[in-house]
Amino acid sequence: MASYTEDELKKKIRGGYILESPEEMTPGYRRALIVQLTVQADTELMSAPAYWFAARHAPSTNTQVSAHAIIQDELAHANIAYRLLEDLGVSKEHLVYGREPHEFKHPYGFDQPLDNWAELVVANGFFDRAGICLLGDVHRNTSYGPLKRALVKVDMEETFHLRHGEVWMRRLARAGGAATELLQRCVDWMFPMTIEWFGLPDDLKHHSGQLDYKLKGLTNDELRQVWMSSTVPLCEGLGLSVPAHYDEEADEYVLEYPFPCEYDPDAKRWLFDDGEITWQAVFERWKGRGPMNEIYVDSVRRSRGSVASWLN
Amino acid sequence: MSTGLGEGVYEVFARKRRGEPLRHIGYIDAPGDELARVYAWKTYDEESWFEMCVVPRGAVIPVNRVEGPWAKNVPEEADGP
After folding, report:
1. Who is most buried in A15, A72, A114, A249, counting CB within 10 A?
2. CA–CA separation, B78 and A219 (whole Å)
3. How many CB pairs under 8 A join A and B?
4. Does domain B8-73 have CATH number 1.10.10.10?
């Protein structure tokens, strides 16, 4: 059994070493990987009820099928990530069924209601794109072999979700009138929601080790830029306004609103006029969870107790 | 490891098309062989597989490696490959 110090393992990883089993991990590596996989699994799992509630607004049988195909993918991705955690000695049973709803680690965006078809397709276009940015980076860079292989399927399917979102955003944008107005309204709350999703800016980020262990390759700010570099041109091309633009001099996308700022979940509105808030305040909002948190968590596990009791 | 509903782990292998190797593509928890077939087919549906099969994790016997998910399946009397 391999036994490395933290520094030895980091050095090996910098040289391209791929870990294939938990026995090769240092405590620091294992801890960082568990945090990463828990966020990944919880995000996939909680996207399912968010999309499932919204799929009721699908306008045809075809769109019902595609919406539910996406939900099925998300559940499979969650299942795979929890299975990887189980191999690290973390109980899937506890993670899915033993925690309080507020203890799940998914982003605040998946605590929000998606109230119509436009919100679902913009979620596909924005949230699933964030998933591709984050997981695509993990896929290219991770030093954990089993995760790298598992992400082949995930990346392939998330790309389909994104395409679904883009195609439908285009249809709604072309329709004009009420459809385009509704689309703009979605973009107004979901664009900043996704920006916030990428987390603390690099200059404030506490060093987590995820980069040293090559559990990912890009920093939060870099990933935010990657997301904006495809989202902003998409929206501009559709005639939708977004609170960000490309700054040629800085050679990067810049936000046109105070970041971070406060959000009113009932009105689905960002309070740009109230100015910048601290990240501490953002973490408190996240920790307090959003309006659908308990409903979503309950919806994926409500029958567990009764069925388990019939079987045991 | 059991998962509450009496499930065990199955390894999933698949071949994309004729002439290609059978590859390990993932894992699934299932309470028995029949549901393992269903869960694997429904979970790993990203390709139109030419061939897919599942193997209970306990049935995979490692030959040279002494760590990883199958390590505990090394027969007791074994002393190397």
Report:
1. A114
2. 46
3. 57
4. no
